[in-house]
Task: structure prediction
Amino acid sequence: MPHVTMHRALAVPELLFLIVNEANSDDDEGPPRVSVLSTLLALALTSRAFLDPALNLIWSAQSSLGHLVQCLPTDLWTVSGDEHLILKEPTRPTTHQDWERFDFYARRVRELISDSDEHHFAGRPSRVISESLFFWLHSSRPGHLLLPNLSTLSWGSSIPSGYYGSVHLLCGQQLSTFHIGGSTPRSTSDVIAQALLHLPQRSPLVRELRIILVENGTAIQPVQPILGDVFASLKRLQILSLQSELPMPFSAFAMLASLPHLTQLKLVSEDGAIMTSVPLKTGRADLTFRALEEMTLTSSPMDSSVDVLSSCQLPRLKYIYINSEIAADPDTIVRVLQLLHERCSHTVLEGIDVHNVDYISAGEQVREAIRFTAATMRRLCDFHRIRLFDLHTDLLIVLDDEVIKQLAMSWPRLEFLHFLSANDHPWHTPTATTLKGLVHLARYCPSLRLLTIDLNASDSDVSLRTKPGGGIRNQTLRRVTFGHSPALGNTAKIAAFLFAIFPNIISINDDDEVPIEESWDQVFNTYEVLQIVTRWKKRTSAQ
Result:
C-alpha cells in the first residue's frame, strides 16, 4: 500500500481544531450524543494529527469519574450488583504504569457536571463510582490532582452523599466555574461550607460561583458566617448566584461590593429576606458595585428587594430583574422604580424586569391599581437607553395615552414593552390606553418587536379621509398581547387600525400566560386578510 502524505495545512493546530469542532454537532439522526462521539472517534483513528484534537472533545465533558476508572487495570475495580463501580478488595499498591492510561484521558477533561444528562462514550453511560473508590482515587497518590485541566465543576444533588464533602479535592488552579448545592438532604451545608473554605486557596481564579442552600433552616447555618471571607478572597469573581433559605449576612453583601470584576449577581431567598438588616451605623447607599451589569433579586416579599436596592449604588447596571410571589401594594412597586431612578445611571440602564404575581384563585379580583400618572412615569423617562421594560403583576395597571407618549418619546431604543396584569376583566378601574396611544409607539419606537399592554379599543374609528397614525408605521413589531382586555368595538376597524401602524404582526394574544379571547381571534383573522390583500397589490404593481 503506497504511503499517503498528509496535506501540510493539517499541520496547523487551529485548522485541525476547526475541522474536529465542526464534527462536534448534534445534527445527525439517531441519538445525538452517540452519533457525535462515533464521528469523533472515527476522526481520532484517522491519523495522529487528528488524535489529540478528537480525543480532547470526546473526553471534554463528563458526568462522573466512571469512564476514567474503567481505564485503570481491572484488578483494581469491579462492577457491583447495582451497576456501580466499586473498589476491588483487597487493594494493592499502584505503579506509575497503572495510572498512565487514566492520566492520558484525565488531562483532557474540562467539565465535570454531575447534574447534566449522562455523557455517553460509544453509547455507554458513565457509571457512578462508590464512596470507597472515590476516596481511594485521591489517597493512592496524595497531592496529585485527578483532573488537572478541569475548568467547570458542577457538584449537585445527584452526587452520592458519602463523598460530597470531598469535592474540593477536584478543585485546581484551572477551575473557573464552580457550582455546588442542591435541594435534597444529601447536599448538607457543612460539607458545602468545607468546599467553599478550600476554594480560594485551591482555585483562586474562579470567575463563576453558584451556591444552592435549600434545606431546613438549622442545617444551612454553618455556611452563612463564612460567605464574606470566601467572597473577599475570590478577586477574579465575575458571576455569583446564591440561592438560600436564610438571609445573607449584610457583611457578606458588603464584601461583594468590593469585588472589582463582579458583573452578574443573582440572589434568591426561598422563604424570606435576601439579606440581614443594614447595621444602624451604615448609611443608606454606602455600598457601590462599580462593575455590576446584571442583578437578579428574588424574595418574598418584595420589601426585601427594596432593602437591597436602598443599600447600594449601581452606576454600571444594565439589567435588573426583581421577582416576588407574594403580592405587593402599589406603593412598594412605585418605590422600586423610584430606587432604580436614584441608584442606577440614567445613561447606562437598558432593562427593567419586575414580576410580582401571587396567582389568585379563579374569579377572585385584586381591587388595587397602579395608576401610572405622568408624575409617576417621569422617573422612568429619564432612562433614555431602555430596550426592555417588563412589569408583570396581579395589581391593576392603569395607563393612558399621554403616559404611553412620554415613554415612547423617552425610549427610542425600546424593543420589548410588557405591561401585564394577572387580573381578569372587567376591571373596576379600566385602562385608558387606546389605539391612538399605540400610534406613539409606532412613531417613536422603531425597534419595538414585542408589545404587551391592556387596551381600550372601543373608540376604533377608521376614516377614508385620514389614515390611522397619519401614515406612521412600525415595520418591526411582530407579536402583540393585549392582556385580558377584550376587543371592544368593531373588530374589523380595530384590525384596520392595527394594520395601518403595525403592518407586520404575526400573532395577537398568542401567549401561554394570557388566554386568547374570541374577540381578538376575530381581529387577527381580519388583520391577516388585510396582509394578504396588500401582498396581492404589491405583486400586481411589480408585474
About this structure: Residues 518-542 form the longest helix (25 residues). The radius of gyration is 29 Å. The longest strand covers residues 177-182.
